[in-house]
């Protein structure tokens, strides 16, 4: 696979997750307060809940349904009830384009 344009950098609002899809994979894209763009799997590992409907605080994304927070850097859950990580993807910025290849998972 190759990197796919999922959105424009100008479409991202700081600390507001955006649900996108790349090659059939649902991904939550987040522009954090430090200006870094993160991409993690959009489905909470505790329940079939879209993480892009959750809340960003610092470098975490919290599931709105049960409160599990996931690290935007590693995908690891930081509290229960989730105990399995979500995938984290490599993000490439090219001008205003945000590119993600869902086959390239970020090494943490």
From TrEMBL:
GO MF annotation: an example: oxidoreductase activity, acting on paired donors, with incorporation or reduction of molecular oxygen
Source organism, top-level taxon: Bacteria
Name of the protein in question: Non-heme iron oxygenase ferredoxin subunit
CDD domains named in the record: Rieske_RO_ferredoxin
Gene3D superfamilies registered for this protein in UniProt: Rieske [2Fe-2S] iron-sulphur domain
Keyword Ubl conjugation belongs to the record: no
The keyword GTP-binding appears for this protein: no
Keywords per UniProt: 2Fe-2S, Iron, Iron-sulfur, Metal-binding
Limits of the Rieske domain: 4-100
Pfam families referenced in this protein's UniProt entry, alphabetically: Rieske (PF00355)
